[in-house]
Design a protein that fits this description.
315 residues, alpha+beta, Thrombin, subunit H, 3 domains, 6-stranded antiparallel β-barrel, 6-stranded antiparallel barrel, 6 helices, hydrolase, TRYPSIN_HIS, signal, serine protease, protease
Length: 315
């Protein structure tokens, strides 16, 4: 076993032979990484953004849990470095309510970004619980009004974080949080949260996020990217070839069973939408864009989640 604690310069260690789980244990800490073979050479990814590292480690945990076999070096690289896979540059009208969650202590927006979110009121953002659990409001800024992490937009401090009380950090069930901003982002498009009626299976949904369009590589574009992904039935997604019963009533799958197009780590917390209707939140998956491992999203049409979001967002 290996363990690591990090603050300023965070180090995420993932063995190419790992079959255990990398578990985030609060702000700036990693509790354990179980290796299949003692002394196995790890893949190491260093970052100056501890909040980003915590999100990546939670995604590692889910990937390893559902892997069913050791990971290859290529799969580890995809997990650590890729984001929107198989997408294209987003236009001004593609999920225009998308915002970026930034580490307040890092001045450069590109370096500071660690998750996405959706503006549902001028001062309220809906995101994933796994993006902000164990993090204080004083650590986060929200960037609004831009498609680019290199220019434009306005940073807003966060005054409060509300995480669903049933959120499970192991399964990522109830993966939703509401952030209240200290200042309002006036004059910007807002997302309308879906009601309690689901979109039909097969419906094309738009997912957006900042990141790489390649399955591997370490160069992250600063511009917002998009991918169109159809909703997949829960019965198919819970099948033995896919997620084997791991998809709860608070989740849904979207993507292609053949792989190739997907959201990934840097997109966590961001929107999957139909027009201006926020259908779900980027939550988890087994790696990124893999065969029979589509993206998993928080299902906002679930009556419990829907009521909680509306109450806590003041909708």
């Amino acid at each position: 076993m290996k363990s690591s604690a990090f603050s300023g310069l965070a180090v995420a260690i993932l063995s190419t032979l790992a079959i255990g789980a990398a578990v985030a244990a609060g702000p700036g800490k990693v509790s354990q990484l179980t290796l299949a073979k003692p002394g196995a050479k790890p893949v190491v990814a260093a970052s100056n953004n501890p909040l980003r590292d915590q999100v990546v480690l939670r995604q590692m945990q889910m990937t390893l849990k559902h892997a069913g076999r050791p990971m290859t070096a290529a799969e580890a690289d995809r997990l650590l470095n890729a984001r929107i896979i198989g997408g294209s540059l987003a236009g001004a009208g593609d999920n225009p309510f998308q915002v970026a969650l930034l580490s307040r202590s890092i001045a450069n927006n590109f370096d500071a970004q660690f998750c996405g979110g959706s503006l549902v009121k001028a001062n309220v953002v809906v995101t994933a619980a796994h993006c902000v659990v164990g993090t204080s409001a004083s650590q986060i800024d929200v960037l609004t009004g831009t498609r680019s992490l290199s220019s434009g937009g306005t940073r807003h401090a966060v005054s409060s974080i509300r995480i669903h009380p049933s959120y499970n950090n192991s399964t990522l069930d109830y993966d939703v949080a509401v952030l209240t901003l200290s200042t309002s982002a006036t004059g910007l498009p807002l997302a309308t949260v879906i009601g309690t009626t689901d979109v039909a299976d097969g419906t094309n949904l738009l997912v957006t996020g900042w990141g790489n369009t390649s399955i591997s590589g370490t160069s992250y574009p600063t511009e917002l990217y998009k991918a169109v992904t159809p909703r997949i039935s829960t019965s198919v997604c819970n099948g033995n070839k896919v997620y084997r019963g791991a998809i709860t009533d608070r989740m849904f799958c979207a993507g292609y069973l053949a792989g190739g197009i997907d959201s990934c780590q840097g997109d966590s917390g961001g929107p999957i939408a139909q027009g201006n209707t926020l259908v779900g939140i980027v939550s988890w998956g087994r790696g990124c864009a893999g065969k029979n491992k589509p993206g998993v999203y928080t299902r906002l049409a679930n009556s419990t989640l829907n009521a909680w979001v509306r109450t806590n967002a003041g909708l």
